[in-house]
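Retro notes, item 3 of 5
We never archived the inputs for the CDM complex last cycle. Fixing that now. Sequence and ligand:
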Amino acid sequence: MRVMEKASAKINLTLDVLHKRPDGYHEVEMIMTMVDLADRIEMKELDRDAIIISSQAGYIPLDEKNLAFQAARLIKDRYDVKQGVYIHLDKKIPVAAGLAGGSSDAAATLRGLNRLWRLGITDGELRTLGAELGSDVPFCVTGGTAIARGRGEKLEFIDSPPQCWVVLAKPPINVSTADVYGKLNASRIAKHPDTAAVAEAIRSKDYHSLCDGLGNVLEEVTLSLYPEVRQLKNCMERLGADGVLMSGSGPTVFALCSKEKKAQRIYNGLRGFCKEVYAVRMLTGEHAAP
Ligand SMILES: C[C@](O)(CO)[C@H](O)COP(=O)(O)OP(=O)(O)OC[C@H]1O[C@@H](n2ccc(N)nc2=O)[C@H](O)[C@@H]1O
Ligand SMILES: Nc1ncnc2c1ncn2[C@@H]1O[C@H](COP(=O)(O)OP(=O)(O)OP(=O)(O)O)[C@@H](O)[C@H]1O
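Structure as it came back at the time:
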């Protein structure tokens, strides 16, 4: 038996931090959605009790540091599964990019092993399990579009945003999420995004208000640490994007465009500037699940 799962990348349309919590995490309020850039995960039964990971990507860990490995071990232990599994990750999402690549692989592994081992775990239970692996994992289990609160695990699912193009560019730097949150002074945030206004823009399919409302409070930390991310953002704005924002803790910056021609112009304009550039569609409607 083998199963395949798609693990899509997420972007944050808003990311607000309300305060730092006693447990060290930050209380967030953010709108997350998925884009059509995905890893493919193949899971096959193994005739011995082991978890084996492989990938065509030479730059990710293939041992217990891999989030897909951690997801497999968690579900095996929690549901007392004696079988082993072979997991192959066909990576397309750039790593340490702010696009939840590892989290989405972990979520896809939970979904896939639930099917492979016929465990009958509900979507809600998979999200609760996912929260043990990382703050972005519960959202990646279900996909779609959601307002995430708490440390990211409390999800309110909402309509998909209006269909548009998303041009993503990742500068060649690695950004640590813990470092960015660690350097944020939550009591001195200059400008908070208006999450409710953006949620309303999405509900009413008001693309221009959505673009105007994009905001991420982690930008002020990452942009000041890495001037190349600010340059990239400025470049996308100059090229005429409808809206531009850094995703998550960065360093990926995305541009929204309603017209394919404009998305192509931005994609071509960025290719000389940045090696990792992608022009993809927003995942909406029936395609919104990962
Ligand atoms: C930046 C985002 O990707 C936006 O979607 C998430 O908030 C982070 O999600 P993630 O990478 O799954 O984060 P985790 O693996 O849970 O946490 C990594 C580190 O980020 C910090 N962290 C994360 C989430 C949160 N709400 N507050 C935090 O302060 C913590 O220092 C934590 O040790
Ligand atoms: N399956 C995986 N795919 C990619 N990276 C992984 C995976 N498992 C573990 N990692 C490690 O996780 C770290 C973060 O990579 P990832 O691509 O998940 O970051 P990210 O997109 O910034 O995540 P997030 O947006 O959730 O903060 C990297 O250092 C990488 O080595």
